[in-house]
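User: For my dataset I need records formatted as: sequence, then C-alpha cells, nothing else. Please produce one.
Assistant:
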Amino acid sequence: MDYVPRVFAALTQARDSVRSVSAGYQGQLRIALSEGISQARLTALLSRCREEEPDTEIRLYEVQLSQQIRGLESDLYDAGLSQSSEVGETLLSIPAWNDPMVVAVPRRHPLLAHKTLPLDEVLRYPLVLFESGACEGCSRQVSRVLRATDREPIVAELVVSQDLMVTLVAAGYGLGISTEAQVSTSCHPEIVMRPLAGCTPVLTTYLIRRIGEPSAALQRFVERALVPAPGRAADEALDTSPGS
C-alpha cells in the first residue's frame, strides 16, 4: 500500500496545477523541503524568484528526506532542498550554500569565558542534538564534526526541531550545535552563539533534482539557488544576543 500516499499526492498536485493556471501563472515548480533549511537563504531565494519570474508559481512541500527522495524519483517534485547529499543513483545533489556552524550556549554558562570554543571543551558538557531519523542530513554533518575528537559526546536530549533545541538549551539542558543563521532567527534572549575554535565547520544545504536536462524554469531556479549570499563582514561578532 506504499503507493497510496503517492496517488493522493499526485491528485493534489494536479488540482494545484489547475488552480495555478486559473490564477494566471504560466508555469509551476514543485520544490520539496526536508530538515531545517535556513529561513534567511530560503526567503532570499523565493523573493528573487517572485521578482524575476512572477509568472511561475513555486509550491513548497515540507517532507521528510525519504519522502523527498521518493517524490523526486517519481516526478512528484521538480527539485528539493536538503542537508543530505546521499540521495541515490537517479538523483543529482548540488551544494547550494554553506552556513557556519555555531554552538548555542545558555547565558551565564562557564564556556562563555571563551570567544571561540575548543571542541574538546564543548564535549565536556551535555549536548542537545538533532534526531537522525527526522534530521538525517543535518545529524550526519554534525556527527562528522563531533568525530574530530576522541571524546564521546554526552547526549542530553535528541530533538526534531530547531525551536525545541533552542528551548532546551535556554533552559540549561545542554549545549546545542546548529548554524549561525538558524540560531540568529530564534533570537532567544537566554542563548549566546559562539563559533568553534580553529577552522569553522559549515552545514551544507544541497539542491537535489533528477539527473538529466532540467526544464528552462527549473534551470533558472537552480541558478538562483546557487548564487552566493552577500558576505558578512569579517569582524562581525557571532555573539548577537542582548547584553553579551
